[in-house]
Prior knowledge:
By secondary structure, this protein is an alpha/beta fold. It contains eight helices and 15 strands. The strands form three sheets. It has an eight-stranded mixed beta sheet with strand order 1-8-7-4-5-6-2-3. Strands 13-12-11-14-15 form a five-stranded mixed beta sheet, with helices on one face. Helix 5 packs across helix 8. The chain starts with a strand and ends with a helix.
Amino acid sequence: MRLAFVTVLVLLLGFAGAGAAELLTLDGQPTAPTVLLRSRVAMLFVVVPGVDDVVRVVGWFDSAAKALPDVAPFVLAPEETLELRTVAESYPDLSVLIDQHATFGIALGIQDVPALVTLLDGRVREWLMPPFSRDDLLEAMEALAVAERRGPIPLIGTSAPAIEGKTPEGEARSLDTLPLPAFLVFLSPGCPFCWDLLDELKTMEADISVVLVVEADGLTADYEERLEAFLGEAPAEWELLLAPEGVREAYRVLATPTSFLLDDRAVIHSVLEGAVPGPILENEAYQLFAELVSEDP
């Protein structure tokens, strides 16, 4: 049976417990969960050994992935087994990951396997729960391959759109005057998840600037007062930027909070949507620093 939730904005990192999840390769190497939040991703949840048709469905999945090179295929299993290694060796084009404690599977509501979940830029497009046919699987992956990308993820690797805003004191601000590298965090009044994210940002040990972006027209006096009080307790020199209408559209922000990690040239290194756990925020910052050091040792 196929369950389609094309319009539901469910972020993988927003699921309860996902921040504590750990994905491992078959060699035991940790893999950042953000690998599943890039572009077009199809995840096949399996247990091997398990039900008789798992290996057959993996074969369908491999064939569909070969025909759709724009879709990144992942096979997730809750534990490593000799049989799972055999499957991985038989289908070397599939990325096999261990979903420890089945955290992602549980968060996604997977109750039986094999099950397919397709994601576009971190948003669930479709669930296929067993039983389903080869045609069902191929149709779901073909739909993913041609789906329109609407959110901010496609901006990764591009120069950040221009911002001409002001501080609450009226001082002009632009990308050229912002401290970089930085997390550029889009907030909105009345957003409880925004405050959850700010609390997570406070836990970061990475030395990186944080710029809070709020549309000036939507800023109430109470919200501004609360933000100013928060900035007064921030662990570093964080800034509040009041941006004109249209900036959110330029950054393709669909919901708040949305965070853009900019490098020292204002190029977008990564995009994180929702109240992302502090360790993931910090990991993204450290990855950026490592890349900057490698470019300019």
